[in-house]
């Protein structure tokens, strides 16, 4: 946890859960750690994890099966991607477009970097293009 970030700790925890789902660590139907387990593992108050889980319940990322625990919903991955795409388009793209304009970087150049990036990632390389 990054306790000095402007983003609330409960949102950081929710983001971590979503990341684990997107990375395939947890799939639809999988049981996730209890509130107490996660709080101990992260070194935070159980109330903070409760708030995170409530947000994830509201976003239909997880579900509570009373007496059994919390589970990843079948549609969790799709729901996360939908929300993160909206956030990226609303929050990140405007700044990126402004920077591109200031630096006179065209979409064609970005496309070249993106193509190079995807080819590198597919091949397992991490070195950025020159």
Written description of the protein model:
With 130 residues, the chain is mainly α. The protein has 2 domains: 68 residues, Arc Repressor Mutant, subunit A (Orthogonal Bundle); 47 residues. Helices cover 61% and strands 6% of the residues. The protein contains 5 helices and 2 strands, in the order αααββαα. A hairpin with a 3-residue loop joins strand 1 and strand 2. Helix 1 packs across helix 3 and helix 2 packs across helix 3. The radius of gyration is 18 Å and the shape is elongated. The mean pLDDT is 92.
- Which structural class best describes the helix and strand composition? mainly alpha
Stated plainly, the CATH topology of the largest domain is called: Arc Repressor Mutant, subunit A
| The CATH class of the largest domain | Mainly Alpha
Low-confidence stretches: none
User: What is the strand content?
Assistant: 5-15%
- Broad shape: elongated
- The biggest beta sheet, please? 2 strands, antiparallel
Write the CATH homologous superfamily of the largest domain: Winged helix-like DNA-binding domain superfamily/Winged helix DNA-binding domain
> How are helices and strands ordered from N to C?
HHHEEHH
N-to-C span: 33 Å
Level-2 CATH architecture of the largest domain: Orthogonal Bundle
- Number of folding domains? 2
Rounded average pLDDT: 92
Rg over CA atoms: 18 Å
Structure annotation, total helices: 5
- How do the strands line up in the largest sheet? 1-2
Strand element count: 2
- Percent of residues in helices: 55-70%
């Amino acid at each position: 946890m990054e306790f000095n970030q402007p983003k609330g700790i409960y949102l950081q925890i929710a983001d971590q859960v979503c990341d684990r789902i997107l990375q395939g660590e947890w799939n639809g139907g999988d049981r996730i750690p209890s509130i107490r387990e996660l709080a101990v593992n992260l070194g935070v108050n159980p109330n903070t994890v409760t708030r995170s889980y409530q947000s994830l319940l509201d976003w239909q990322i997880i579900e509570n099966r009373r007496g059994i625990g919390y589970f990843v919903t079948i549609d969790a991955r799709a729901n996360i991607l939908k929300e993160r795409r909206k956030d990226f388009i609303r929050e990140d793209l405007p700044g990126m477009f402004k920077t591109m304009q200031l630096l006179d970087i065209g979409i064609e150049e970005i496309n070249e970097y993106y193509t190079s990036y995807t080819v590198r990632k597919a091949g397992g390389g991490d070195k950025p293009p020159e």
